[in-house]
Amino acid sequence: MSRTAMKYALISLTVLIILSGFVIYDKVFNPAHREIAKEPAAFTIAADELQFHFADNQATAAQKYIDKVVETHGAVTEIGPNTIVLEDRVQVYFLNDLKQDLTIGEEINIKGRCVGFDELLLAVKIDQATTLKTN
Amino acid sequence: MKNNRTIQFALMLLLTCAFTSQLYAQNKYVDRAGYLKFEASEELFEPVEATNESVTAVLNADTGEFASLALVVGFRFANSLMEEHFNENYIESETYPKAVFKGTLIDFDLSRLTDDPTEMMIDGKLALHGKEKEVKTTVSLQKVNGAIVMKGGFTVTPSDFAIEIPSIVRNKIAREVLVSLNFNLKP
Question: Between β-strands A83-86 and A90-94, what pairing exists: parallel, antiparallel or unpaired?
């Protein structure tokens, strides 16, 4: 190998090492966020039943459901900006702006991350939610 | 005749119930998707901040009593690893899933609120991580399309709530945590 070829090989090797260093650093110290919409649901449960679990025993329900992906369904009882309430018992916050035309009383299926029980509203909260096709 | 009276009584009772429940509902202003942000960034280091857009806030417009609840898992960081550490090592969200503030707006009077922001003192207790601390701060309130918009902020320290910051990251996290809030309370 000639001297120049050797030099180029060395330079590209150094660049490669530095680049992979950056990539590894980024992967280790700034890994991607969870994508709830792509994760399979750990639990599939009716909205009122999910709320009942929390109302019945907050501590056990918290251990079981918080930060888990939950699929739930029920009738829409309230619609707000980017949020809806199911069965007066589960408050759902959507991942993206809610573009779907939802109506009060409509039965829907959603998947999201359970964040816990809100004692002021007596409701279970789910964030990063996406609507699922019902049919 | 007797039957008629029973019906009359039942009707009265029903009306009274409906009336009082409506009265009660009218005085409560609620935000189901309130905004909270906290910041503990140090210059030159990665920003330490998180937002929660699923906070509940309830104001009793008769008494000025105010309550707010944030589920701590709902705080989102730009850096997912920071979010994980916050939940697992610092705030211990599995054991202490919520942060609750309960207090009173001093000299609150609904009729005094206008379209322009009015400054008001709020005094109450913030409970999180199994500890409680008194928080007294100024907030601004204004009426916007029948809703009450409340904005403000306050500072706390991790040690107020027995949250230990390991020495290895101590210089990357500010000693004082600035919390800001924005609620849109609807009747």
Answer: antiparallel
Give the Cα separation of B107 and B63 in Å (integer).
Answer: 9
Position A24 confidence tier, pLDDT thresholds 50, 70, 90: confident
Nearest to A29 by CA among B77, B18, B151: B77
- Our CA-based measurement puts residue B33 at a distance from the nearest CA of chain A, in whole angstroms, of 8
A chain contacts of residue B92, beta-carbon cutoff 8 Å: none
Compute the distance between CA of residue A5 and CA of residue B153 in angstroms, rounded to an integer.
62
At residue A86, does pLDDT exceed 80?
Answer: yes
B30 contacts B145 by C-beta, under 8 angstroms: no
CATH topology of domain B28-185: Lipocalin (2.40.128)
Which pair of structure tokens corresponds to residue B42?
Answer: 């140090």
Residue in chain A nearest B70 by alpha carbon: A118
> pLDDT of B161-181, one tens digit each?
888 888 888 888 888 899 999
Identify the sign of the CA torsion B57, B60, B66, B69: negative
- Token readout for A53 is 């679990």
Q: Would you list the domain boundaries of chain B?
A: 28-185
